[in-house]
Design brief:
alpha+beta; 4-stranded mixed sheet; 4 strands
Length: 123
C-alpha cells in the first residue's frame, strides 16, 4: 500500500494501535457472525464510529476496507488495490494512519479489515 501511495506522491501510512484495535474488533465480529460488512447490527460495536469512540480515536477522517476469503495478506492488498472504492480509501490524501485486523471464522473463512484515519487535531 505504501509503495503505491509513494508512487502517487502521497506520504506513507503509519501504524496506529487504536486503528489496529478497531480493525481487529471488526475482523473478529465479521468472523464471529460470518458476515462481511462494515456494519454488523448484532455486535456490541456495530459501526466504525462506535469502534472509534470505544478505542478513543478522535478523528477528522476515517475509512474502512473489508474483505473475505483471500489466502494471504498480500493477495487481499492486491484485491483492494484492484477495486476502485478500496483503492480510493488507501490513496486518500487526507488519511495518515492505518491498522489491520485478520480473523478466522469457525467455518474457516478468513476475514480482513483495514481502518485508515487522520486524527482530529483541534476541537
Amino acid at each position: 500500500m505504501n509503495a503505491e501511495r509513494s508512487h502517487q506522491g502521497l506520504p506513507a501510512l503509519v501504524y496506529n494501535p487504536q486503528l489496529d484495535r478497531m480493525a481487529k474488533i471488526q475482523a473478529q465480529n465479521m468472523a464471529r457472525f460470518q458476515k462481511m460488512a462494515h456494519v454488523i447490527p448484532e455486535s456490541s460495536l456495530p459501526t466504525l464510529s462506535d469502534r472509534a469512540r470505544d478505542s478513543g480515536y478522535l478523528y477528522a477522517r476515517l475509512a474502512e476496507n473489508v474483505a473475505l476469503g483471500y489466502p494471504s495478506a498480500e493477495t487481499v492488498v492486491e484485491g483492494w488495490m484492484a477495486s476502485k472504492g478500496h483503492r480510493a480509501n488507501i490513496l486518500q490524501h487526507d488519511v495518515e494512519e492505518t491498522g489491520i485486523g485478520i480473523a478466522r471464522s469457525p467455518a474457516g473463512g478468513i476475514y480482513y479489515c483495514q481502518v485508515l484515519g487522520r486524527r482530529l487535531t483541534s476541537l
